[in-house]
Write a structure and sequence with these properties.
Number of strands: 23
Largest sheet: 7 strands, antiparallel
Strand content: 35-45%
Radius of gyration: 35 Å
Shape: extended
Length: 567
């Protein structure tokens, strides 16, 4: 009897244990699921979500004020060591900038040197800090935003061409900008990097005044503007990115960190249209200034086109590129005022990072009053460019359609350039194949198909249009037949032009209205031949310039005719 009672109690207790264990596992499973859901929700949370849930009072101080504390720590320690920084940096800046001042010395001066240079007792204040991810595993890039209202003691010893010596003091310096520090290469030896590259990444504001010690600088006409321009050019040349100063920390060769060319930017300044008129009588006389770095010897200036708000330049320039990822091309269009200062019509810029190496980019850039002001709704005109970026060491891979020299036959040019611009290819068959690919001259076939929505110029609301085709360099002209009383004429006429230099020539198509006693201008299209030379053939509908409406439908075809010199 006792055996059966014990057996029943044992079974009951076993079942109770099993049920209890199962219920416990279910509870734990639900808790794990709820915890996993919570963790997943936190993982999806953004900083903005956390700020909505928790007020700043709930954060520890090292989270809320980490950035502020870092900057406070930097500013505190910079203030402590500033006397030593002043002594070292003053001498470094003086020895670096003085030769550049001499290089940009105005013609009215015979000498321009520092007689005294110290940065003063007021240390700059860091207001921002960021680490830049650039994909380079062998370096760390840091950017520091800095504000400095200092009390430096800077005196320039100036001598004019007349032999007059003037001590000029640079006062009231106010500066705001972003400095870039690159620690490279990273090494195992303390302090874990071999050198530091210092550069001014962005110059937000730079103000200063000039004062002749014991006199008035305005007594010498033009002196203040000349010195101020020289100082700004010297800063641009020595400190502004991509210029940099390399400071070795550990012994080693750091020549690879020095500023060097990484490629060439080819620019064809084609034309501008609908420019703002700056003259009261007549029209503006526009010219363009182009640069990648605003240094006098690197800035290019176009010819002046007199009395024209739709100038055609068709000029080609080359610019040295030192950092394609951050540099940009700037175009400024001015109205020439003769002996007076030219008046800015508008400016534009394009980032070099937008260009695909080895590919020509055709762009129209809208002109604005100031590159720093993004909200400028006033229409100032547009400028037309063709751009080609050629990285160094890749000349054999990328075709340079802008830089072809028509005085050299294709074989000679290829043998000169070679694989890397220095050595010729050894395989004769490859030489012949490459030779046949190079285009020197050709025949341009232009089919004027039709026009759409031309503006009405006759009293009855119609027009008698025809098209005049002009090859700019040779001034070869052709014209279509007249289509009577039509704003949507169809011509389907083809014209052939012998072109000597297709990559530097232009095709101008002017639409006119034929009248018994004259003709009326209706609009025009201006085309470079770069695209048809590179593509061989294309069809396109072009908007008429200088017209209220109208489009021209064209079919262009390029037939290369290489010319080789007899041996």
């Amino acid at each position: 009897m006792g055996f059966f009672v014990g057996l029943i109690l044992g079974i009951a207790m076993g079942l109770a244990l099993i049920v209890g264990f199962a219920r416990c596992e279910n509870v734990r499973s639900k808790r794990r699921s709820a915890l996993a859901t919570t963790i997943a929700a936190f993982a999806r949370m953004t900083v903005e979500d956390s700020r909505k849930i928790l007020t700043p009072d709930h954060y520890p101080s090292w989270v809320v004020f980490s950035q502020r504390q870092k900057l406070s720590w930097l500013n505190l320690h910079l203030k402590k060591i500033w006397p030593y920084v002043d002594e070292a940096a003053s001498e470094l800046i003086k020895t670096s900038v003085e030769p550049v001042l001499e290089q940009y010395r105005p013609i009215i001066l015979s000498s321009l040197k520092f007689s005294k240079f110290t940065l003063g007792t007021v240390a700059p204040q860091f207001t921002g800090l960021s680490i830049i991810e650039n994909g380079d595993q062998d370096s760390v890039t840091m950017e520091l935003e800095m504000n400095w209202d200092g009390n430096p003691s800077i005196i320039l010893d100036i001598k004019t061409r007349l032999g007059v010596g003037l001590p000029v003091q640079v006062k009231n310096i106010g500066f705001t900008g972003v400095f870039r520090l690159i620690f490279k290469p990273l090494v195992e030896e303390f302090p874990c990097f071999g050198a530091v590259c210092c550069s001014l990444r962005e110059k937000k504001n730079l103000d200063f005044t000039l004062k002749v010690v014991g006199g008035d600088i305005s007594t010498v006409p033009g002196l203040q503007d000349a010195i101020e321009s020289t100082i700004r050019d010297a800063i641009e040349d020595t400190l502004m990115w991509p210029a940099r100063k390399v400071v070795p920390i550990l012994p080693g060769d750091y020549s690879d960190l020095e500023l060097k060319s990484v490629g060439i930017l080819e620019v064809k300044l084609v034309q501008a249209k609908e420019l703002t008129n700056k003259d009261i009588i007549g029209k503006s006389d526009p010219y363009a200034v182009l640069y990648v770095r605003p240094l006098h010897d690197r800035m290019k200036r176009s010819k002046i086109v007199n009395n024209d708000l739709n100038p055609i330049w068709n000029e080609h320039y080359e610019f040295i590129v030192e950092d394609a990822s951050t540099q940009h091309l700037v175009v400024k269009v001015y109205d020439d005022e003769g002996v007076q200062t030219s008046e800015l019509i508008g400016c534009a810029q394009i980032q070099l990072s937008e260009l695909q190496p080895g590919k020509v980019k055709d762009v129209w850039l809208k002109l604005v009053k100031d590159l720093e002001v993004h909200r400028d709704n006033k229409h100032r005109g547009q400028v037309h460019l063709e751009l080609l970026y050629r990285p160094n060491g890749m000349a054999s891979i990328f075709t340079n359609p802008f830089g072809f020299n028509v005085s050299m036959n294709p074989l000679e040019r290829f043998l000169k350039n070679g694989v890397n611009g220095t050595e010729a290819i050894e395989n004769e068959k490859s030489v012949i194949q490459k030779k046949n690919e190079v285009i020197v001259r050709g025949v341009l076939s232009v089919t004027v198909v039709s026009a759409d929505d031309l503006p009405a110029v006759d009293l009855i609301g119609k027009a008698d249009p025809y098209v005049v085709l002009i090859l700019k360099k040779s001034e070869t002209r052709n014209k279509t037949r007249v289509v009577n009383e039509s704003l949507n004429p169809v011509w389907n006429q083809t014209f052939d032009f012998v072109v000597e230099d297709g990559l530097h020539d232009m095709l101008i198509l002017e639409v006119w209205d034929h009248d018994t006693f004259g003709k009326d201008y209706m609009g025009r299209c201006i085309l470079t031949l770069t695209r048809v030379v590179l593509e061989g053939e294309y069809r396109e509908c072009f908007q008429l310039d200088e017209a209220k409406s109208g489009k021209l439908n064209l079919h262009l075809k390029w037939m290369p005719r290489p010319v080789y010199r007899d041996s």
